[in-house]
Each structure stands twice: as structure tokens, then as C-alpha cells.
Amino acid sequence: MSALSLEAVSVHFGGVRAVDAVSLDVPAGERRALLGPNGAGKTTLFNLIAGQVRPQSGRVCLFGEDVTRLPSRERARRGLSRTFQITKLFPDLSLRDNVMLAVQAGHRARFSLHRTVFTYRDLQQSVEETLFVWKLDDKAGETVRHLSYGDQRQLEIVMALANKPRLLLLDEPTAGLSSAETLMVTSLIAGLPRDITVLIVEHDMDVAFGIADRVSVMNRGGIAMEATPAEVRADAGIREMYFGRMEGARHA
Amino acid sequence: MRVLSAGRGIVLLLAFAAALLVASGLLPPYWVGLLTEALIWALFAMSLDILLGHTGLPSLGHAAFYGMGAYAAAVWFLHGSRDFWTCAVVGVASAAVLALVYGLLALRTIGVYFLMITLALAQVLWGIAYSWRSVTNGDDGLRGIKRAGIEFLSLKLGETQDYFVFVLAIFVLAAAALFVIQRSPFGYVLRGIRDSAERMEALGYNTWLYKLCAFTLSGALSGLAGVLFVFNNNYVSPEVLSVTVSAEAMLMIILGGAGTFFGPLIGAFAIVLLSYGVSSFTEHWSFVLGTIYVAVIVFAPDGLAGMVARRRGKAVAQGRPK
Amino acid sequence: MTFWLIQVLNGVSFGMLLFLLAAGLSLIFGLMRIINLAHGSFYLLGAYIAITVAAHFGGFWAAMVIAPLVVAAFSVPLKLLLLDRVQHNELGQVLMTFGFLLMISDASLWIWGGAPLSLDKPALLAGSLALPGAVFPIYRVAVMVIGAIAALLLWYFVERTRLGAIVRAGVDDHEMVQGIGINLPRVMWLVFALGAMLAGLAGVLASPILGVYPGADFAVLMLAFAVVVIGGLGSLKGAFLASLFVGLVDNFGKALFPEFAMFTIFVPMAAVLAVRPTGLFGKA
User: Fold this and answer.
1) What is the largest CA-CA distance in chain B?
2) Computed over its alpha carbons, how large is the radius of gyration of chain C?
3) Predicted complex ipTM
4) CA gap B55, B219 in Å, rounded
5) Could you tell me if B174 lies within 8 Å of chain C, comparing CB atoms?
6) Is the minimum CB–CB distance between A5 and chain B shorter than 8 Å?
7) Which domains does chain A have, with CATH numbers?
8) For position A246, what pLDDT does the model report?
9) Pick from B109, B111, B298: which is nearest to C86 by CB?
């Protein structure tokens, strides 16, 4: 069963073909990295999968279901979860409240007006569990605005995981992190259970190769290569794509 | 925004109500009338704050719902039945329906466009009230919406003191309801939408639907305030639909602190008391009010409640479930 | 036949006045995202100051030149010292301009009193034009001419000058313009002052016909607002066409259905809001 299946999707803005007839298949449980130089179309493809961009042609299927016409919130309800490259948390709410909103999204109570959140024991319990598992309970009361950048990025991922998604989309999760923080995030992702399929867009190739089972490399709106990390690493064509005529310079 | 702890919030609200009740027994009718007016404004401001402070939608045309409640109740009183409760239901229902329609139109925009369209929609209603003389009597307004003779639970609403108690009771009920709503899952979703609608959508929430519900709820409560207003004033004119009224409610919210429970209440009382106080010294209350607008925006955009919150810093613990 | 002609001419001349107001309001919004609720106040001040200037320094023409400049000068500190302190707070800016409205309104009442005042038409324009079967005031013709000239000058400024190009770019994409190093803040207060000046000029030109009185600021703001909503924010073409439309509709409305006078403007406004919220020519 494939978790995600793209069939010849194309996106163009005016005259520019950001995504050109891309087909992609990610089997359930796989860790797939999406790489490519700047301008290759990774972001557009990512947003297309997430539901923020509509393709002009082609199909997007999630666990066998055609979701091409569905907005991001409908995809979220079908098990898709994503992080944002620029953290989009709720800055004026506490960490606990941020997690609660994530957990609440899947809860039947989410339309309720007549009872306070604290009266939903099971909801509160899920929140406490999540905080405990991710070792966030000591910071739970802090306003998110005041958390460190590293903590915020970790929270981004935790919120995306709060509702037990089937497909997790990670948008440059280690951007702007120190090497210690990067290590923490990488081990977090590597430690995820295999019932969650992961698609990660990354600039840091070591991180990507460390996590991924398979790598899809994009260039100029299309998929240039799709193979295992070792194969991609060894490929001369890929190296040239990234480094161009500077080939010798890196090992100088 | 930290949410006030349940115990402390309710206690403060009841203490406040009790204090007002006692005061009303001791003060002359002029002052009691002032307090009634302040409570009506507070209700209006609190209902607008559902949109402004909690959902992040700056509606500059909220007088439309306040005025709709007032006019609908007035017209029903004069041409339908003189029963207070029927008039009230007509008023609130009309305001709610209007809010639903206006919400459908306005929610196609965000930010400053939303500001503009809500203002414009209110203007349309003002224009209708001004022109439709056969129903609204235009500029001259509708007179004779009397409370005299209406009784409720041994309160003679015709008496200033008794009407105050009645309004206070309704205010406390509405405030308590808002207290629960603000701390309900729905309330949290609104604040999530305020902070990041995109994130809420990514989590799976239908943000448009929540916004529409908030808009309608807010409009209905504003309509209730309008009903209380028209029976307090015995008169309604297109003035009640003007941008002046909408802006003043906004000022009260900002002065007190948007998104907080007591902010709009504090702001409403502050402005009403100031208006009476300053007007007793000078004819230039309008000018003073103008400077208050400018000063609050420049010096205290988080409002009084916001300044208190900042001083206490992040050391204050979240309201924990007991 | 002549009845219709007179109404059309009245409507167009009124529309020209509205254009002077709406153009400024629209540009200020387009460039700075400020809904300037004090725009009617600039009109009010223009009229009052013109009357004072004419009474003390001689005549209509002096007033017509000086008053708008005074209003423009007055607007600059409002922008630089106050509005600029709350740059990214759109709601705050709107409320602040409302504060200005209240202050200017009250101060004007105190300075010029509550009785309606008006400016005398200059001798040159005092007569009437003989039309088949009626007469039409030359002054109103002059208003139309001045309005048309202003429209042309504005068009030229926005479409053909470098500064105008910056304004257009700023309306389209704020961040981009600042990113390429153009001093947008300076352009912004210039445009604000220009808008205020035009509003002041409208006030001067209107005072011989409509007079000025406490509350005119509100009345005129509502009309300008209606024009900008219908025509679209940030669009001069929209402002021009919508001004003519509103001027004509208002005039015909008052002539044909006096009880529904206000209504005739608000219905098109509501229709536009329902169908295309950013206005007919608006830049979303």
C-alpha cells in the first residue's frame, strides 16, 4: 500500500513550470528524503502534497484515496500532518495549550462551547501523556513566544505528531539549529515508529542521508533521480547538478 | 494570553457584581443610570472582543448588530407587542441573522480589508435607518420605548434602580457564559486561529466555520446589549449605528486589554465614567476622547490588563485544572 | 430635457468634488494601508481655513491656494509623529485617525462656532451660463474643470513620473519596494500630505455651494468612503469612475426619490461589497 502517490502532477505560475509532470510513490512506512538545489521545485511540491497548492494537472493520492481536490484541513483529517519551515506555533499561548490544540483537532469535543477544556478528562490526559513522552512537561507552562528556537522547532514536530498521523511531512526541520539541536531532532525522527511514513525536505544532506531509506532528487521541476542514499551520493550527475563546475573545489 | 483561573475569575465577577449592587442602593438615580449605561457598553465590548481579542478579527462595524438589536426591539415594541421578552427575542434574533449574513460577506477578506468591509456594511445599515423613514422615522428616530409597567420577578423595570439590577443580572449571566465559552475547546480554537490560522488548517480545523460561528455569536450578544440600551434610553436613532459607536467599543476593548476576560469591562467603565466626569467640567469631551484614542494606541496598545500581565511576566503559572 | 441636463451637470460637478476626496483616500490606503477616517476632517479644515483666509487676506483665489497647503502642512506631523509610531498596527492606525477626527471636529467647533458658514464665489465665476431653457452656475462649471485638471495631473503624476512609479509599485508590493532600497517612508508622507491637500481643496471648492458646518466631516467621509468601496481601494481610475457614479446617483436620487436619498448610494455600495469586496477596480 502506498502512503503517498503523485501521478504526473504539474504546477505552473504564469509561464514558470515549478513542478513538471512529477510522479512519485512512497510506500507506507518508508522514510523518503526530497532533495534538490534551490529553485528545483521542492517547496512547491511539498506544498502541493500538503494541500496548500493545487496542481493544474495530475493526481495526489493519500493511502489510495484521491485527495487532489481536498484542502489541507481535509488531508489532515485523513492522517496527513506537516511541520512548517518557519515555525508556525501559537506564540501567545502556553506550550501546553499549543499541544492541546493539536490533540484537540482529532477530538469530538472540538466544537463544544458549553464546557471548559478542563472538563474533558480524556483530552487532558492525552495532552499530559504527549508532554510526558516528549519530555516537555517542565516547560509546559511557558508562553511559546519565550521558548528557545530549538525548543520551538521541537514543538513544531511534536504538534505534528500529536494526533498520530499516518504520513508526516517535515519541511526543513533542522534549519537554523545548532549541531547539538540537529542531532536531537534527527534522533527524534529516526526513532519514530514505522507505522508513520515520513517525507522530509532537507538542505542538510547528511541529515537527509542519515534518516532516509530512499531519496528523490529534484531538478528544474522534475525528478532527476530516485534511489538509495548510497547510490545518490555516488552519482556523478547529481554532484554536478549541485556543484556544477566547482567540482574539484570541495575536496581541494 | 494566559487564561484566568476558573476560581479566581468567577469570584472576581461575583464580587464586582455584589459591589455594584450595594453601590446602587446607596447612590442617587443619576449615578445608577450611569452604571446601567456602563454595564450595557461592557456587554457590547465583551461581545466584540470575541472577534477582536479572541479570534483576531478587527470588526469596525459592530454597531450594526448593536443598533439592529435596538431598532428591531423598538419597532416590535411600537408596532408589535409591548411584551419586553418578545421584543428582546426579536432584537437578539435579528442581530444574529444580520451577523450571519454580514459574516458570510465579510469573512471573504482578512486584515485591513476585513476592517473596511465591516465598516462599510455598518454604513449601509446606517444609510437604511436614515432613509427608511416609514419604518425607522429616519433622522428623528423612534421614541416611546417605555419600560414603565413592565415587571419581572418583583423588579419594576420602570424604576431606575430596578432596571439596573435587571441589567446587572443579565450582564452577569452573559459574562459567565462568555467565561465558559472562552475556556471551552471552541474558545481555544478561536485563539489558535488568531495566532496562526494556517497552522489550525494544517491541524485539521475548518477555520472559516469557526470564524462564522464566532461572528454570529458576537453579533447576537451585541444585539442583546442593543435591546437593553433601547429600553434604557427609551429612544433610538441612526446614531446608534454609526462608526462612532463601533470605534468606541473598540477603544474600550483596547484600553482594557483585548483577549482578556475583564479587559472590555474595565475599558467600558473607564470610558463611561470619564465621559460623565469630563463632561461635568467642560464641553470638550469629544476632544478629550480623541486624545484618549491617540494616547491609548501610542502608549498602551495592550491595554491596562495587558500592562498588568506584562509586569507579572511569564512567572505567573498557567491556570491549571483543579 | 433641460431638467436631465442640469441634473447630469450637477451630478458631474459633485462627482468631481468627490473625486478630489476619494483620490486621496484611495492612494493613502493603497500605499500605506491606512483607512484615514480623518479625511473628512481635512475637507472640513480646508473649508474653514479658506473662509478665514478669504475674510482676512482677500478673496477666493488666495484662499483656494493657501488653505489646501495649510491642511497639507498640518497633516505631515500627524503622519510623522503619530501614525508612524504604530507602523504595523493597522487597527491602531485607523483608531488613531478616528481620534484625529474627534479632536479636529471639536476644535473646529470651538474656533469657528456652530453656525453654517460659506465662502463667497469669486466675481469671475459668479455668473450663470445660459442653457436652452435654464441657467447653470459658472462656478459649478469651474469646479468640473478644476476637478478634471486635478484628475489629469494626478494621472500624469502616477503614471508618468518616477515618483508616481514608486507609488504604484508601493501599492502593488510594499516589501519589494523597500527591499530595493527606495525611501518609501518619505514617499508615504508626501502622498499623505497630497491626499490631505486634495481633501482640503475639495473643502474650499465646495464651500460656496454646500457651505461648511459641524458634522460636514462625517457626512463627507461617508460619501468618500462609499466612492472608494465601489471604485476600489488603491485605484485612481476606480476612484474617478465611482466618483462620477456616486455624484450622479446621489443627485438623481435626491431629485427623483428624496425620501430614499441616502439609500441610493448605499445600495450600490452593498452590492459591490457582496459581489466584489475589494471594489470594482480594487487591487486585492
Assistant:
1) 60
2) 19
3) 0.89
4) 14
5) no
6) no
7) 2-251 (3.40.50.300)
8) 46
9) B298
Indicate the residue of B6, B187, B204 with minimum beta-carbon distance to A76: B204
Domain count for chain B: 1
Mutate to test the interface with B, among C266, C272, C275, C280 (most CBs of B within 10 A): C266
What is the domain range of residue B185? Answer: 6-240
- Please indicate whether, in this complex, the C-beta atoms of B318 and A140 are within 8 angstroms of each other: yes
Least confident segment among B208-222, B307-321, C122-136, C194-208: B307-321
Residue B291: HSE in the Cβ half-sphere, 13 Å Cα cutoff: 9
Query: Which 170-209 residues of chain C touch chain B by CB within 8 A?
Result: none
In a domain, B262, yes or no: no
User: Who among C85, C263, C277 is closest to B113 (CB)?
Assistant: C277
Residue C274 has pLDDT above 70, yes or no: yes
* Residue B247 falls inside a structural domain: no
How far apart (Å, rounded) are the C-alpha atoms in residues B268 and B247?
A: 12
Spell out the domain ranges in chain C.
2-275
How close is the nearest chain A Cα to the Cα of B177, in Å?
8
> Per-residue b/e over A24-53, b at no fewer than 16 CB within 10 Å?
bebeeebbbbbbbbeebbbbbbbbbbbbbb
Contact in structure between B49 and B259 (CB atoms under 8 Å): yes
Query: Which residues touch A134 (CB under 8 Å, ≥6 apart)?
Result: A154, A158
- As given in the structure block, the three cell numbers for residue A245 are 563546475
Cβ <8 Å between B123 and C225 = yes
pLDDT at B158: 84
At B279-291, the pLDDT tens digits run 999 999 999 999 9
First to last CA, chain A: 46
In chain B, positions 185-214, which contact chain A (CB-CB < 8 Å)? 185-189, 191-192, 195-196, 198-207
CATH number 1.20.140 given to C2-275: no
Average pLDDT for B223-235: 95
